[in-house]
Each structure stands twice: as structure tokens, then as C-alpha cells.
Design goal:
About 30% of the residues lie in helices and about 30% in strands. The chain is α+β, with helices and mostly antiparallel strands and about 240 residues long. The chain is globular and about 50 Å long.
Length: about 240
């Protein structure tokens, strides 16, 4: 997926609602590195361990397609903030997110930064917590949502912010209130000092109704093309 500087970035997003049973988990482990397998053993809860293994399995499967490398031969290295890169493929940008039964991976080679986040749509966000990540304008937007729509909108807003902070490589070390959104024609747009930032592109991606998925891309070559597929293990992904 090579892009010239003048072409919009092409983003490959894979979503996988993975099965949760021991047999599959053992098979996925065979694609992981020894460090990843060792890390998997450190998880206290089985749910978290399975989510980590499924995430790294999907990431390796999709990166293998993009680099034409067997998934178990890929070398993933982390920077000082834990952001992963593929050794020998510095131009390849990717991001991974896990959320209770869903794994999401975004890959691109025609952008500067990329981040993806997924959360349970029914996650409960206490009213007091909204003040810790919402700007005043965002609070007003949530307050004026139709009855019943506010909780999912709050999760969507959080997911957008998390995807952006992941793209920056800082995660929650940065105050979420430093990232603010407005909506233009139903599309989230990040605003800085009251003006849209045109180098950043944010999207909410349609996936499982049980989850909210958000994508953040920094690209100076225009709005990226986003290709979303549903991953099916041991077969070609179905679009």
C-alpha cells in the first residue's frame, strides 16, 4: 500500500469479534513472539489474557499481508512510550485496540500518524467523569442530545479522543481535554483555538452495534480512504 505525497492515505481497518475458547487461544499463540507469549502469562484474568493474545494475533496477520512476511517472522519493536513499529518497515503506520470481545487494527503507509480505539457502546461514564475529559462546548453538545442518546455519544467522544492520543503516541499521559471536537455534516472535526485542524482526520467506524470504533489519522494529502473489513480467522477477510 504505497502512496505518493499527493495521494490521500489509504487506511486498512480490520475488525474481529474473536471467539473465546482455549483451543483457539493456543493456536493464536503460535504466531506470537516469545516475548509476547511471556507477556500473555502475566495477565491475572483470563479475559484480559485472551484479549491481548487475539489482538497480537490479528495485528500479525494483517501486518503479514502488508509486508508479505509470515506473521510469526515479523519483528515488532516498541519505542520509549510503548508504540510498536515493524522492524525494516519504518514507513508502515499501524494501531491496535481491544475492547471486551472485539479487536481493531488500522494500518497505513501514506500518513504521518494513525490511532484506533474501540470501546463497549454500553460502557457507563459517570457524570462527574465527563468534566475530566470534555471541553465546555462538548459538555453542552452532550447535554442537548436526544433522550437516551447521551450515553453512547459520551462513549463515542471518549473513543475519538483516545484514538487521537494513541496516534500521538502519548495515550492518557496527555489531558483528554486538550483534544476537542465539533461536528460538521455528521463528521467529527478536531478544533484548535476554535478553528478546525485540517491535517487531522477523525472518523467513527460502523462495526458491531455492541462497540464504538474511532479512527484518527494525520495526513497532509487530504481525507484518507478507509477500507473496513471483518476478519475471519483461517479464511480470507470478508468485506
Amino acid at each position: 500500500m504505497q502512496q505518493s505525497d499527493s495521494q490521500p492515505a489509504a487506511i486498512d481497518v480490520a475488525l474481529w469479534q474473536y471467539p473465546q475458547n482455549e483451543g483457539d487461544e493456543k493456536r493464536w499463540m503460535r504466531s506470537l513472539s516469545s516475548n509476547e507469549r511471556e507477556r500473555a502469562t502475566t495477565y491475572r484474568f483470563e479475559r484480559d489474557r485472551t484479549s491481548f493474545i487475539a489482538g497480537r494475533y490479528l495485528l500479525r496477520q494483517r501486518l503479514g499481508v502488508h509486508t508479505q512476511t509470515p506473521p510469526d517472522k515479523l519483528v515488532l519493536v516498541a519505542d520509549a512510550y510503548g508504540k510498536l513499529k515493524v522492524a525494516g518497515h519504518d514507513g508502515l503506520q499501524f494501531s491496535l485496540s481491544n475492547a471486551d470481545g472485539l479487536v481493531a487494527v488500522a494500518i497505513a503507509s501514506g500518513c504521518e500518524r494513525i490511532g484506533i480505539d474501540c470501546e463497549r457502546a454500553d460502557a457507563e461514564i459517570e457524570a462527574a467523569a465527563l468534566g475530566s475529559y470534555c471541553s465546555p462546548d462538548e459538555r453542552r453538545w452532550l447535554d442537548h442530545m436526544p433522550a437516551g442518546a447521551g450515553p453512547r455519544a459520551a462513549v463515542a467522544l471518549w473513543t475519538l479522543k483516545e484514538s487521537h492520543l494513541k496516534a500521538l503516541g502519548v495515550g492518557l499521559r496527555e489531558d483528554p481535554r486538550s483534544v476537542a471536537f465539533s461536528w460538521q455534516d455528521g463528521i467529527p472535526v478536531m478544533v484548535q483555538s476554535g478553528e478546525p485542524d485540517r491535517q487531522w482526520h477523525h472518523r467513527l467506524i460502523e462495526g458491531s452495534g455492541q462497540h464504538v470504533v474511532a479512527l484518527a489519522v494525520r495526513s497532509q494529502s487530504g481525507s484518507p480512504g478507509i477500507h473496513v473489513l471483518t476478519f475471519q480467522d483461517d479464511s480470507m477477510p470478508s468485506e
